[in-house]
Amino acid sequence: MFRNFKIIYRRYAGLYFCICVDVNDNNLAYLEAIHNFVEVLNEYFHNVCELDLVFNFYKVTVVDEMFLAGEIRETSQTKVLKQLLMLQSLE
């Protein structure tokens, strides 16, 4: 626990994904959100690795599509990927 927050994290193949949430928030919901986020990254980057995130950090707008003001905004992977591909086509 950190002040009035707790840190929820999950490890995927050497990458750690962390979320700092309110102490009253549901751990399982955010673990599922992390899992969903990683699945979207895998689909978008075709098997994501650390270098994808380091060299394409500006493309990780998937965070904006899935979370808003620290809350889960969208859980549909197809909707998020559709938005990301549309943004990519504008580049």
TrEMBL record:
Q: Main localization of the protein?
A: membrane
| Cellular localisation | Endomembrane system
- TM region(s), chain numbering: none
Q: Where is the AP complex mu/sigma subunit domain?
A: 2-90
UniProt key word NADP: no
Q: Name one GO cellular component term.
A: endomembrane system
* GO annotation (BP), single: vesicle-mediated transport
Membrane topology annotation: Peripheral membrane protein
Q: Does the keyword Protein transport apply?
A: yes
Question: Which family does this protein fall into?
Answer: Belongs to the adaptor complexes small subunit family.
PANTHER family cross-referenced by the UniProt entry: ADAPTOR COMPLEXES SMALL SUBUNIT FAMILY
Protein's name in the database: AP complex mu/sigma subunit domain-containing protein
